[in-house]
Design goal:
By secondary structure, the protein is of the alpha/beta class. It has 10 helices and 13 strands. The strands form 3 sheets. Strands 1, 2, 3, 4, 5 and 8 form a 6-stranded mixed beta sheet that branches. A 5-stranded mixed beta sheet has the order 11-10-9-12-13, with helices on both faces. It starts with a strand and ends in a 5-residue tail after the last helix. The mean pLDDT is 95. This is ROK family protein.
Length: 292
């Protein structure tokens, strides 16, 4: 069975075909800036793939999985309120089963079914990238919330004494770290990435930026652990591939006076940048084909 999976991001859309659970070559296209181009480009990718049994999409924002609708589509605001699968099928020669799922929920599903959370039923995935996302498993099931907003960790307010409307997106994302670094050194944010910054942590000025950022990530983790009491917390996103990340966050967590009473195992996601593709595949196989 061939399933085409899309991982829709703000800059690129990655895609790949799963053949009986095995991911083939991964490719990407720039994320279009209009709804018409979005559907046309995805339809062209579909047309280039033979013998598909279904299409799965990992998608940003608030995703109503019952109606298969993007209530809010993150940075893809031009898709707000649209039934993505239905609109895509209208442009295909042959309609196919389609499943739309929140991107951080996809990351959590990938970890539960073939990653670093296979042995636990209660865990949290925190994705650090352009923003801060989250996926929550409780009693072995994904927690979507009444209005499909569970796991929107990036919208939590933080540092309110300085910035009353500042969110985790603004302070704890990889983009926030990159922006602070670029501002400090008079560079453009596009010329640096989070993994490069972590690699420079021996430089005193960089070390302070990383320490401040790590404290914000650790504060978010502590608050989530105090709220949800998970068995494990996993960090995802491209920056999680750097082995220096966990020690940075561990140091910041142990600086929190109450961490000893609440601490849980902290790790990184197994699937890294392919988590969205794997999670989308698992989602459609679970919801449309009843496999998992």
């Amino acid at each position: 069975m061939n399933v085409l999976a899309f991982d829709v991001g703000g800059t690129f859309i990655k895609y790949g075909v799963f053949n009986d659970g095995r991911l083939g070559r991964v490719a990407k296209i720039p994320t279009p800036r209009t709804a018409a181009d979005f559907y046309a480009n995805l339809a062209q990718v579909v047309a280039d793939q033979p013998d598909l049994a279904g299409i799965a999409l990992s998608f940003p924002g608030f995703i109503d999985t019952k109606q298969q609708r993007a209530i809010r589509a993150g940075h893809l605001f031009y898709l707000d309120g649209q039934a993505i699968g239905q609109e895509l099928n209208r442009r295909l020669v042959k309609p196919l089963p389609i499943w739309l799922e929140n991107d951080a929920n996809c990351a959590a599903m990938a970890e539960k079914l073939s990653g670093n959370a296979q042995d636990v039923d209660d865990f949290v995935v925190i994705t650090l990238g352009t923003g801060v996302g989250g996926g929550i498993f409780v009693n072995g099931r994904i927690l979507r919330g009444h209005d499909y907003r569970a796991g929107e960790f990036g919208m939590m307010l933080t540092n309110v004494d300085v910035d009353p409307e500042g969110t985790l997106h603004d302070y704890a994302s990889t983009s926030a770290l990159v922006q602070h670094y670029a501002t400090h050194f008079g560079m453009t944010a596009s010329s640096v990435d989070g993994r490069q910054i972590i690699a420079e942590q021996q430089e005193p000025a960089v070390a302070q930026l990383i320490e401040d950022w790590g404290q914000r990530v650790a504060t978010a983790i502590f608050n989530l652990v105090a709220t949800l009491d998970p068995q494990r917390v996993l960090l995802g996103g491209g920056i999680s591939q750097n082995p220096a990340l966990l020690p940075i966050v561990h140091r910041a967590l142990h600086a929190i006076r109450f961490w000893d009473d609440f601490q849980v195992p902290l790790g990184t996601c197994a699937h890294h940048n392919d988590a969205g593709l794997y999670g989308a595949y698992y989602a459609i196989m679970t919801e449309r084909f009843g496999k998992y």
